[in-house]
Structures are given as C-alpha cells and as structure tokens.
Specification:
By secondary structure, the chain is α+β, with helices and mostly antiparallel strands. The chain is built from twelve helices and four strands, in the order αααααααααααββαββ. It has a four-stranded mixed β-sheet with strand order 1-2-3-4. A hairpin with a 5-residue loop joins strand 3 and strand 4.
Length: about 270
C-alpha cells in the first residue's frame, strides 16, 4: 500500500492514543489493503468526478482522530457511552464502534454522493464483522451485535440528515464535521478556477485555518474554530453548528469561532 506522509502521520497519532481492543481495531483497518483502495477511490470520485472536497484516506483519519479525542474527553469527565449505560459493552467496545464508523463512513463515495451513507453501510459491514471476529470470541454474540449496531448508526448519521440517539454516533457526526480546515478544500479549488453556484461552501471552507479540540471550561469538550476571514462563519453556521445541534453530544460541547486576532464568538 502506498500511503501519503500525511496519512502515515495521522495513523501514528491515532495509534498513540489507543490501547486494547480499540488499538487492535485501528491496526486491522489501517493494514487492510481493500479499505485503503476503497478510501483512495472515494477521493477520486469525490474530487475528480464530482468536484467535492477530500473524502479519502486523510479525511477519514482526521475525522477518526477528532472523534477519538472527544471520546476521551468525555471519558475523562466520567460520561458513560450508551453501550456501557445499557450494560451491553464497555467503553472500549464503544470506542471500537466509533473508530470503525469514523474510518469507513465515506466509503459510499466510491459510488455516489446521494445517500452515500447507506452505500457506506453496505460496503463497510463485511469489514466490521471481520474486525469483530478478530477482537471478540466467537460466541460473544450480544457484544458483537451491539458494537456492529453502534458502528452502523455512526455511519448512518454522519450527514446529519437522519436522527441518531447514541453518544457514540453523535461523536462520529461531530468528528466528521470538525474536519473543515482549509487543506480539505485545497485540491478542488486548484482543479477548478471557475466560479459556480454553491462555491460559497468552498470559499468559506478555505477560510477555516484551524480547528482545536480540547478540554472545556464548563463542559467536557471545547471546539475552537479559527478563520482568516469572516466568510468562514458561513461554514460554522450553515454546516458545522447544525451537525452539533442535532447530535446527542451537544450538551457536552462548548463551541467558539472567530477571525484570528479578534474576539471569539461563543455558539455554545
């Protein structure tokens, strides 16, 4: 597998945050050449055929890293995930589901943009089952069923077009939305210099300089979005905030955004 330096760096960051079953899950997915091929082709379709931004290996890893960081901040604050609250799994089991969803949520982009979350579920399910068989005993049917469901819900809900109910899926939704720094829109902008309807999304995305995820002051998670121009507020208010607004994780998030060297606007 030929991996970019950026992809390799992100994988190292992710692996350094994990242990146990979650670490094994990430290793298995990172080492699978079929998943790598699917992620790379998702990017080709997204950028070259459809003119969208990055939906490939780097994006899926950045979304995963964001999700893991938020998961751990909730864990440090004593917030239990739904699998643990429902007595069907551990925090580690929840993290396994979150990682699988985050790393495979855009595989459906190999086919189409419309309803790609459902296509992603179809493509990802065999890989989900393969990982679950590798990290759990053959007869642990209940635990595997719960993790599989959480992973599928995370993929199902990442577009914010369908209601989700678990904290796990809510983290996947926001982790995906948090990958909006300017680099993600760079390649489509280079390939197309023509102005077209809808380019406000690309322009606003290009204004986002940095997304920082860290411990909040009043809530477990704080997300700071730094931009170099006020057009970036469109990205926050029309794309990112609506995702947070419908996520079950919303009560645990502080959201700030603003132009660099100016006061930050508090959304949550």
């Amino acid at each position: 597998m030929n991996k970019s330096m950026k992809q390799i760096q992100l994988e190292k960051k992710i692996l350094n945050l994990l242990d146990g079953k979650a670490l094994k899950t990430a290793e298995l997915l990172f080492d699978d050449p079929q998943i790598q091929a699917l992620q790379e082709y998702a990017n080709i379709v997204s950028i070259k055929r459809l003119g969208f931004n990055d939906h490939g290996p780097v994006h899926m890893r950045k979304a995963t890293l964001n999700t893991i960081m938020m998961f751990q901040l909730l864990n440090q604050a004593g917030i239990k995930m739904h699998l643990e609250k429902e007595n069907v799994g551990t925090a580690d089991d929840s993290l396994v589901g979150v990682i699988m969803a985050s790393l495979m949520h855009d595989l459906g982009m190999t086919i189409a943009r419309d309803s790609h979350e459902f296509l992603s579920i179809q493509i990802a399910t065999p890989f989900i089952d393969k990982v679950l068989d590798a990290i759990h005993k053959k007869d642990e049917y209940n635990t595997k069923a719960a993790i599989r469901s959480i992973a599928i819900e995370g993929i199902f809900g990442h577009m914010a077009t369908h209601t989700i109910h678990s904290l796990e899926a809510g983290l996947v939704l926001i982790g995906d939305g948090s990958d909006m720094e300017k680099g993600r829109a760079r390649i489509p902008a280079m390939l197309s210099k023509k102005v077209r309807p809808g380019d406000i999304h690309r322009t606003s995305a290009s204004a986002i300089q940095k997304v920082k995820i860290h411990k909040g002051e009043e809530r477990p998670i704080r997300i700071d979005v730094e931009m170099n121009a006020s057009v970036g507020f469109f990205q926050i208010e029309e794309v990112f905030f609506p995702k947070i607004n419908i996520s079950p994780v919303k009560p645990y998030i502080e959201l700030y955004a603003g132009v660099i060297d100016r006061d930050m606007l508090k959304y949550l």
